[in-house]
């Protein structure tokens, strides 16, 4: 297939359309604005609908409405906007509705900076919304991977009837790279088969969506039991991870997304200096692939360096669980919208190794 030279945000939007997305609602926020802009032009060309909502809250509820009548729907934002969408994302999970959410993250906390950062790991994996639900979380490290994972996110959303989050940062959203786009799928009207409210589409035999369970505590408990079984199944089927040069590694980097991409260059530089180092890169942030860390030999690996564009590091807590505190973990990071360089990684790791040797 022919390669196209695309900006990350635009490539993600096109991948969504090719996956069958026919409704998008969103609200402007840097650094993801090219996604809704692209959708506003492309969706009408394929018979879809684009709405610039009056707020992030309105946008996610429009996605809920679209999904509830069987249309694959998507929204995108940055961390601040995702916070505002949290209630609606949880409502989608509670109603077992497929939806794809893209977070092109930036610095924080608060309004933070509009530059790229990885400050939303905990939000994405631990606190995407109230009520204890879970969502698959994918973290691409380049634009081709962003395309492929967005395309796959729609497949998962439809398969599991659950929201799926693609977490990338402003670097991936703003850069341009050659990509191969996936084939165009024919959108299907999604049919649901769960407990439904008589107030929504009362004449329909296809769409049955949970709109409220306030007076049905037993239903709500049974729903959570079924969802737990689904989440446990994800651990067996949906975990994606890259192990890079760890066969002989005495030091291991744990990193994801843009930081992991930068770390590959740093690893080559460190290897030239005689340091045996590799990397474990989670591609699926939830469920987290603990097994790759569990199999590390604590007698061989001297230290793990958690490398993130976040201070303090956020993924580090999952890495600690993975190694059961058997291997020392140190943090190397930048924050607040300061884009990490391979020199930052090399210098930070060399400094830590030198301090260790004193």
Give the key terms.
358 residues; alpha/beta; Rossmann fold; 7-stranded mixed β-sheet; 12 helices; globular
Strand fraction: 15-25%
Order of helices and strands: EHEHEHEHEHEHEHEHEEHEEHEHEH
- Percent helix range: 40-55%
Q: Please count the beta strands (DSSP E, at least 2 residues each).
A: 14
**Shape category:** globular
CATH architecture identity of the largest domain: 3-Layer(aba) Sandwich
Query: Measured on Cα atoms, how large is the radius of gyration?
Result: 21 Å
Folded structure, characterized:
This protein is of the alpha/beta class and 358 residues long. It has 2 domains: 3-237, Rossmann fold (3-Layer(aba) Sandwich); 242-357, Rossmann fold (3-Layer(aba) Sandwich). It is built from 12 helices and 14 strands. The protein has helices spanning 8-18, 34-42, 56-68, 79-94, 121-126, 143-160, 170-174, 217-237, 257-272, 290-294, 316-323, 342-357; strands spanning 3-7, 23-26, 49-52, 73-77, 99-105, 136-138, 163-169, 176-180, 241-244, 251-254, 277-282, 284-286, 303-308, 329-333. Strands 3-2-4-5-7-6-12 form a 7-stranded mixed β-sheet, sandwiched between helices. A 5-stranded mixed β-sheet has the order 9-11-10-13-14, sandwiched between helices. A two-stranded antiparallel sheet has the order 1-8. Strand 6 (136-138), helix 6 and strand 7 form a beta-alpha-beta unit. Helix 1 crosses helix 2. Mean pLDDT is 92; it is low at 193-202.
Task: Describe the structure concisely.
The protein has 358 residues and is of the alpha/beta class.
